[in-house]
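Try this one yourself first.
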């Protein structure tokens, strides 16, 4: 049974690793050839620009991948929370193209790891200060749904 995450409504019954593969390819396809100006567009007033969304996605790839690697290798691992807006502010000068390239690279790195995990690996528990006891599989499902949410925003920007 799939874990319930804050992003389950976006993932639905899709297999999460294939969804991540699809998301990474969709992002590559959407943003290929975008100008600097296109990366600065937003999907609604007051919302993040495409560049900010892509930076955020790269940062969460980094965070989710690190959490999984730590859970797999550190007994009784406790994840750290992070403030996405503070993280985004720290890398506000990253270009849209660099954010995209970073996301695609980290996404492929994580896909390779996630696809190599056994059922037992995916069941490894860890703790999170906001969410309590979780598993590696919970992160994989969260990552997939989180990406879908933001891919939908990028698709609105591209339209």
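Now uncover the answer:
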């Amino acid at each position: 049974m799939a874990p319930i995450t804050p992003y389950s409504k976006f993932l639905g019954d899709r297999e999460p690793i294939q969804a991540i593969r699809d998301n990474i390819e969709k992002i590559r396809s959407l943003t290929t050839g975008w100008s600097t100006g296109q990366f600065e567009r937003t999907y609604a007033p007051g919302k993040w620009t495409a560049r900010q969304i892509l930076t955020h996605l790269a940062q969460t790839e980094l965070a989710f991948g690190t959490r999984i690697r730590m859970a797999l290798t550190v007994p009784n691992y406790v994840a750290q929370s992070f403030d996405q807006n503070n993280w985004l502010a720290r890398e506000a000068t990253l270009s849209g193209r660099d954010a995209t390239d970073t996301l695609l690279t980290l996404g492929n790195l994580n896909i390779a790891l996630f696809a190599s995990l056994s059922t037992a690996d995916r069941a490894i528990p860890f703790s999170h200060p906001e969410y309590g006891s979780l598993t590696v599989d919970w992160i994989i499902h969260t990552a997939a749904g989180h990406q879908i949410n933001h891919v939908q925003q990028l698709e609105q920007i591209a339209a």
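Discussion: The helical segments are 8-11, 16-31, 36-39, 50-73, 84-90, 96-116, 119-122, 136-158. DSSP finds eight helices and two strands in the chain.
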